[in-house]
Write a structure and sequence with these properties.
With 497 residues, this protein is an alpha/beta fold. It has 15 helices and 19 strands. Among the domains are: 169 residues, FAD/NAD(P)-binding domain; 112 residues, Guanine Nucleotide Dissociation Inhibitor, domain 1 (Orthogonal Bundle), CATH 1.10.405. Helix 1 runs parallel beside helix 15 and helix 4 crosses helix 8. The longest helix is centred in the first third of the chain and has 24 residues.
Length: 497
């Protein structure tokens, strides 16, 4: 019997790769250090409250449908997807609010209420962003990509001017919207890949286009149902998934990848090894005793020099009342957005006036909290861990700052309504998910070329070694991570052919 393909990590990228490789007829074994699959897409259950701990909004559901189709299955037999409308409710310190409706007539009314002239600006913006999407989808997002060298691809070079990479997201947004409120709404999509709208190239305005054009979705029962469904599909195809089984090292001899060494000392031979872990962690050993992948010190050094995405400061709050003003997704904006991002990415400290995201899935799935209660997943963007912030000392005070701000912005008496509470800092995210610096999306996209500087799908210093997930091509977020699974499976098929 031929050696199996080994996958280190059962995040969404690892599971997607496992499914597609198994559909090719390969034997696949997946090793996951945690007790559950899913990576950052996971869940926390406490005293009758259920929280999604990672991604809370799904876009581009056709990517999931395509994954199931590749395995000869129907997504609808495993998952129940529903659109969330409005996608998000936005709050500002001055009392202004805005609902991002998916139904166009209501969305236009909301835009007109803030700034009538911006209705035309919105249509112009969507046409502009559609051009970017058309330029990057087939040539970058939807195919295997081996890094900076592929930038020389003729079609990609010809599309260069169309992707608007030489001005920032903020500069582009300002050219279409007059309302400071709407500018802040559209700028916030830089945080979908852990970046700053004041540095990230305008190419990433494609993110808001996708959400407004295709809608925002939720998996009924909780986002973790996606992880469960992919695990079920993988196992139906014969994939062996070993949870609570950490990998100590990928074994490489004379430039050939031979398999993996488990933390218990066992060696497992493999025809290929696919690493579904942050490449910076894998090469540098920033969490644990040493690097997961040995060799090529130049790669480790280069990755260390690149800017990490932001991390997150998270509160899981089970509360004893219902706040009627909350929707499924909610954003409480800061007074000075530019100052907030300067704190995170330039000063590398927590923002003194942070924007706060709340996912209250109990609005949609009532069983996620006891009757008359709510589950609040509270997320604040925070700098990646670099030693400047001692979270064991700062966490309690920053928690109080966040709670006080939410109380000022309408969640009256929140501090007295908390029945369940847990805090995760960037340091917790770093250790829990082997994410270097606790960076949620791997590398930040704060310059025009970083998309081409991500570690490639195929390692350059060792044959039969591959990477998958948000730290490699094409980037972070559920759709792109699933696409990385598709791309790496295609790359392995090409290399094996």
């Amino acid at each position: 019997m031929s050696s199996p393909t080994l996958i280190v990590g059962a995040g969404l990228g690892g599971l997607a790769a496992a499914i597609r490789l198994a559909a090719q007829g390969r034997r696949v074994i997946v090793f996951e250090k945690n007790e559950r699959v899913g990576g950052k897409l996971n869940l926390l259950e406490r005293d009758g409250y259920t929280f999604d701990t990672g991604p809370s909004l799904l876009t581009m559901p056709w990517i999931i449908r395509d994954l199931f189709a590749a395995a000869g299955r129907r997504m609808e037999d495993y998952l129940d997807l529903m659109q969330i409308d409005p996608t998000c409710r936005y709050f500002w310190p001055d009392g202004t609010n805005f609902d991002a409706w998916q139904r166009l007539p209501q969305l236009v009314q909301e835009i007109e209420r803030l700034e009538p002239r911006d209705v035309t600006g919105f249509y112009r913006f969507m046409a502009y962003a559609a051009t970017i999407y058309g330029a990057v989808a087939d040539t970058f997002m939807l195919r295997p990509f081996d890094g900076l060298r592929d930038m020389l691809d003729l079609q990609l070079m010809q599309n260069g001017p169309r992707i608007d990479a030489l001005r920032t997201m903020d500069a582009a947004v300002r050219s279409y919207f007059r309302s400071p409120y709407l500018r802040q709404v559209f700028n916030r999509y830089a945080t979908y890949n852990g970046s700053s709208p004041y540095q990230s190239p305008a190419t990433f305005n494609v993110i808001s286009y996708i959400e407004f054009a295709e809608g925002g979705w939720y998996v009924r029962g909780g986002m973790y149902e996606l992880g469960r469904a992919l695990l079920q599909l993988a196992q139906e195809l014969g994939v062996e998934v070993r949870t609570s089984t950490p990998v100590q090292e990928v074994c490489i001899e004379a430039g050939q990848t031979r398999g993996v060494c488990l933390a218990n000392g066992q060696h497992v031979d493999g025809a290929q090894v696919v690493v579904n872990a942050d490449p910076r962690y894998s090469y540098n050993g920033v969490v644990g005793s040493g690097p997961l992948v040995q060799g090529q010190p130049a790669t480790a050094t280069r990755l260390q020099r690149l800017e990490p995405s932001c991390s997150g400061f998270i509160l899981f709050l089970g509360i004893k009342r219902v706040y009627e003003q909350l929707r499924h997704h909610n954003i409480f904006f800061s007074q000075d957005y530019q100052r907030e991002f300067a704190a995170i990415f330039q000063k590398r400290v927590p923002a003194p006036d942070p924007t706060i995201y709340i996912n209250a899935s109990s609005v949609t799935d009532a069983h996620h909290a006891p009757p008359g209660h709510m589950n609040l997943f509270v997320l604040v963007n925070a700098p990646a861990v670099d030693g400047r912030v001692q979270w064991e000392r700062e966490a309690a005070g920053y928690r109080d700052l966040v709670i006080r701000k939410l109380e000022r912005m309408g969640l009256a008496g929140l501090s007295q309504q908390i029945a369940v509470e847990e805090i995760w800092t960037p340091a917790e995210l770093e250790s829990r998910y082997n994410a270097a610096g606790g960076a949620i999306y791997g590398l930040a996209s704060n310059n025009p070329f970083v998309a081409f500087m991500r570690p490639p799908l195929r390692a350059r210093h060792a044959r039969r070694l591959y990477f998958v997930g948000g730290g490699t091509h094409p980037g972070g977020g559920i759709p792109l991570v699933l696409l990385s699974g598709k791309a790496v499976a295609e790359r392995i098929a090409l290399d094996s052919g």
